[in-house]
Design brief:
heterodimer; A: 240 residues; mainly alpha; two-stranded antiparallel sheet; 7 helices; 4 strands; B: 88 residues; 3 helices; 0% strand; elongated
Chain lengths: 240, 88
């Protein structure tokens, strides 16, 4: 049976070493480039016609655009509009990464925690900077609830602070765990199909269901990642 | 594993538990290396991180929003409840 975790192996395609730091172009980087190129091609080619009555491709692009635009309007408010380019890029990057990973023999970069953590830490640092830029030191006020007796600050403030700092971890682990678990299940079930011979029809049927579920999860996790970014942004902008 | 389902909530609990403790321990470790007080701050922040993850899990179970501040989140939920009832 094939090793179920072999699919996550990073292989350098173009070895590069600058100043002792390994910055090789790996299969992970290749799929990120493929994602960016595909997203750009999809979005630019589909809206090239600029038809008033959209065709099939243009409808798809408009659907994604409106989906993210509505998500920002509902979760951040009208002030979130200027962050649309970042959130839309983030959504497309995660969504296409998950979806390309569902094609057999491809590599899923969102199943690597360093990739998801990299995205999450950029969001976390960005949101914190936005919060401090808009509210100054008042931003620290939200770590202490209004009306609580002041001696509780010694225990409440550190807990709220750590709760705040755990956001990038929670964001990164959620996406990474869902993608990794799904791909391992697919691989293990695929191994059963081969190993069981005629009776492989049973895991095969199960595999069909799991594949559909995996597409759902790929979509849902891209949505969750983006909607959480919106909620964090809302916090930084409005500050209750 | 979708949001809203039982399995989704279970997965969420696991993530929150790991994330809070990881954040707390890392902060403690960082402060320790900086101030040279190994291992005391890491011990303190490990427990604070555990407390923070339990707070986050409590929020997830109660269906509170993900913004900062447990007290504010609970109050917001209570404020929203009557409005939702009127709509329905």
């Amino acid at each position: 049976m094939a090793n179920p975790v072999e699919q996550f192996k990073i292989e350098p395609l173009i070895p590069l070493d600058i100043g002792g730091v390994d910055i090789s172009f790996t299969n992970s980087s290749l799929y990120m480039v493929v994602t960016v190129v595909l997203t750009t091609l999809f979005l630019t080619l589909s809206v090239k016609g600029r038809a008033l009555v959209p065709g099939r491709w243009q409808s798809m692009a408009e659907l994604l655009y409106e989906f993210v635009a509505n998500m920002i309007r509902d979760n951040v408010g009208s002030e979130g509009r200027k962050y649309f380019p970042f959130i839309f890029s983030l959504f497309m990057f995660v969504l296409f990464g998950n979806m390309i990973g569902m094609v057999p023999y491809t590599f899923t970069y969102t199943s690597h925690i360093i990739v998801t953590f990299g995205l999450a830490i950029v969001i976390f640092v960005g949101v914190t900077i936005i919060g401090f830029a808009r509210h100054g030191t008042h931003y620290l006020r939200m770590f202490f609830p209004h009306g609580a007796p002041w001696p509780t600050a010694f225990i409440l403030v550190p807990i709220e602070l750590i709760s705040y700092c755990s956001r990038p971890f929670s964001l990164a682990i959620r996406l990474f765990a869902n993608m990794t678990v799904g791909h391992i299940i697919l691989k293990v079930m695929g191994g059963f199909v081969v190993a069981l011979g005629v009776f492989g029809i049973l895991p095969m049927a199960f595999l069909g269901g799991v594949t559909v579920l995996e597409f759902g999860i790929a979509l849902l996790q891209a949505y969750v990642f983006t909607v959480l970014t919106c909620i964090y942004l809302h916090d930084a902008i409005h500050m209750h | 594993m979708g949001a809203g389902s039982g399995a989704g909530l279970g997965a969420r609990m696991g993530v929150e538990l790991v994330a809070g403790i990881a954040a707390g321990s890392l902060i403690g470790f960082g402060l320790d290396s900086w101030l040279g007080t190994k291992p005391w701050l890491m011990v303190v922040f490990f427990f604070l991180g555990a407390a923070a993850s339990v707070v986050n899990m409590y929020r997830a179970v109660q269906g509170l929003d993900e913004s900062v501040g447990l007290g504010q989140a609970a109050r917001r939920k209570h404020q929203q409840m009557p409005r939702d009832d009127n709509k329905a």
